[in-house]
Amino acid sequence: MELIKQIKDAETKSRQIVEQAKAEAVRIADESRKGQDVKQKEAQDLRRDAVTAAIEQAEQSGQGQVEELKQQGIQQVEQLRSQVAERMNGCVDKVMQHLKNI
Question: How far apart are CA 31 and CA 24, in angstroms?
Answer without folding.
Answer: 10
